[in-house]
Write a structure and sequence with these properties.
single chain; 249 residues; mainly beta
């Protein structure tokens, strides 16, 4: 680990259910006697990184509207006092456009630690066409939460829960939403991945400044991706690929 041509020893737990998630022990090979190791640290690597619990779902946004790209990160649960809690973490860019530097501003953005949600998958977009970004959150039960940004164009985000706006959407388990203009008609559409790899496409039916995702389009029902990670499957990677392809075209 320190490039002295001697193999060192790294030890950590292999139990992903263990609450203590900051212990990676480093023992460095010292001296000339075979098998002699000296304790160095119990926080190797993790003392230089941010830990968001199980899985991390980051999106880029400009939360304070200063022209710099910030980060909002969802997760699939953080073990706090034996309870698995979902939360959003806000990292604000305090650097510059050429040298970004991120600072943790809020580890419990929108106060989800007080809720019963254990999984939060965020995406943003101006779905109501009022000039500011709105927030959609995919939930473990397959539903979508919609937070309307009431700040107005050019102002720091102010997300307010819009009750019942997306109650008709249920994709099964672990909803992973993305918003972008799939059919190139000038309106943001909604595509949602889910646990088994299927994609659900909701074309924006509205021709006004409002939005209407009430109709599920079957165009993408044949697109599936099976990626098994610890028994789970996800359509998220395919969603990200499609989003990139749409931007390129």
């Amino acid at each position: 680990m320190n490039h002295d041509d001697k193999n060192d020893l790294v030890i950590c737990s292999n139990n992903d259910g263990v609450e203590e998630n900051t212990s990676i022990h480093l023992y460095q090979k010292t001296g000339v006697v075979k098998g002699t190791f000296t304790y160095n640290t119990s926080s190797f690597l993790v003392n230089q990184m941010l830990d968001f619990g199980r899985n991390a779902y980051p999106i880029f946004m400009d939360e304070n509207q200063d022209g710099l790209t910030d980060l909002l990160i969802g997760n699939n649960g953080l073990n706090l006092n034996g309870e698995k809690l979902g939360r959003l973490t806000l990292l604000r860019n305090t650097g510059s456009t050429s040298r970004p530097a991120f600072e943790v501003i809020d580890e419990n953005y929108l106060n989800f630690e007080s809720s019963e949600e254990s999984y939060l998958f965020p995406t943003i977009g101006d779905i109501d066409k009022d000039g500011d970004d709105d927030l959609l959150l995919g939930l473990k039960n397959g539903e979508i939460l919609y937070y309307n940004n009431t700040a107005g164009a050019g102002n720091p985000y102010n997300f307010v829960l819009a009750d019942g706006e997306f109650k008709f959407i249920d994709v099964g388990n672990y909803a992973a939403p993305q918003v972008f203009d799939l059919n190139k008609d000038g309106d943001l559409d909604l595509i949602i991945g889910e646990q088994n790899g299927s994609l659900f496409y909701y074309e924006n039916q509205s021709s006004t400044s409002a939005y209407d995702f009430s109709v599920e389009i079957k165009t993408l029902e044949t697109l599936q991706l099976k990626i098994s990670i610890r028994g789970y499957s996800s359509g998220t990677l395919l969603l990200s690929f499609l989003h990139k392809m749409m931007k390129q075209t």
